[in-house]
Amino acid sequence: MASSFGIKDEGLIKTQGFIDGNWVNAAGGGIIDVHNPATNEKLGTVPEMGAPETQDAIEAAGKAFKSWSRTTPKHRHDILMKFYALMQEHHEDLSRIITLENGKTLTEAKAENTYSASFVEWFAEEAIRTYGEHIPSPFPNVRNVVIKQPVGVCAILTPWNFPSAMITRKLAPALAAGCTVVMKPPPETPFSALALVELARRAGVPDGVINVVTTQKNVAEVGKEMCESKIVKKVTFTGSTAVAKLLYSMSASTLKKISFEAGGNAPFIVFGDADIDAAVEGAIACKFRATGQTCICANRIYVQSSVYAEFASRLAEKVSAFKVGNGLKEDTTHGPLIHERAVEKVEKHIANAVSQGAQVLVGGKKIEGNFFAPTVLSDVPATVDLAYEETFGPLAALIKFETEEEVVKLANDSVYGLAGYFFSRDVGRVWRVAEALEVGMVGTNTGLISQAVIPFGGVKESGLGREGGHGIEEYMITKVIAFGGL
């Protein structure tokens, strides 16, 4: 089976779950078929696990927490740095696995592995900086000391659009803090997660510290077990708002600590005083990265009327030059969507916009299989479905606006608040709009904001908690110790 991946280290391809240091099959013998979305070729299988395996994984993590949580931050730092080095060493193999199971181009997959490894490096360094503090007491002979401790066993649920980076963005801070984990990777892209677990094992992560349960049909019962288990103290999830709300409600039964990165519908604003060339490049980087399948990609592109025609023309020209195809081919700029349902959603949003008067400048049609032509729509009304729903595909919808006040109101007219972008060379406007946008992250004069070092997360129904930069705090508790009788 490993030969279908064409990688150098076939030991990175794992077709089993991972519980208490052992690679295991599903108790019932069920399997999940995993396919390459570009070719529909069957890459391999992973186990169809359920509640029993999840319970075993949680118990293993609970047992391992007793010893792992007592290791020194320096010890955890050293293991994570070995893990980071192994990710660098196996860069080509890990990138190829991403492309094969996700479909993104090999260039983008290599960028993802670099991004993914950066979380491991960052949190290795954060492990030794989990500082406490001394708080002066108003009472004599009392000393107040604040310490940080790992929260406990963490349940990690990740999406398919970044098969590697969404794992390390959660796993690395958990391990750095001294937590143990039970992970449920997506059934579409499990091999990247399992390869990372194999490298973590090689780096010296002890048995039971990382556990992986794979499932597709039993996702509801696995999620329920993770959220309602009294052993699990923290749940972290990236995915849709609907699922986040369900996990949130189940986690309430034990008042778990949570961090959710849910849906997005990012506004991208081009003001009349913007550098149009930079705005076009920013829109391409933001909107069409991973064929539009990112949670922070532009979903609504607002362009001021004075530069609307120029921006639309330049963007359409750039997009028309894209080469859609298999991500392993060198000339491919954009790969397939993950599955047929994703294609259908893009088609639905285009049809809805066109029915309300939008014009197709480029693309607008399915090519074949899971491939969809990168699309630019002009004359899009602000009331179309995509203005309120996340497309998650290669569709750039251009909406005209007149004033700053108008566009800020339009941008904030959403239940989501993950990311927002705008281009302007007016420094006063830059500050006003950045502060006015109701989002957790703002890109000003840039379409790329993702970095391991910054706090990543949203407001409103885009979730709560932060990953990246300050993310280790999400995996720790704050404890005060008041020393009396001194």
UniProtKB/TrEMBL annotation:
GO CC, sorted alphabetically, is: cytoplasm
Q: Which UniProt keywords apply?
A: Oxidoreductase
Give the protein family. Belongs to the aldehyde dehydrogenase family.
Its organism's taxonomic lineage begins at: Eukaryota, Fungi, Dikarya, Basidiomycota, Agaricomycotina
Do the record's keywords include Transcription regulation? Answer: no
Start and end residues of each Aldehyde dehydrogenase domain: 23-481
Which top-level group of life is the source organism from? Eukaryota
A Pfam family cross-referenced in the UniProt record is Aldedh
- The molecule here is called Succinate-semialdehyde dehydrogenase
Instruction: Extract the PANTHER family matched here.
Output: SUCCINATE-SEMIALDEHYDE DEHYDROGENASE, MITOCHONDRIAL
- Extract one GO molecular function annotation from the record: succinate-semialdehyde dehydrogenase (NAD+) activity
What processes in GO biological process is this protein linked to?
gamma-aminobutyric acid catabolic process
E.C. no: 1.2.1.16
Organism of this sequence: Rickenella mellea
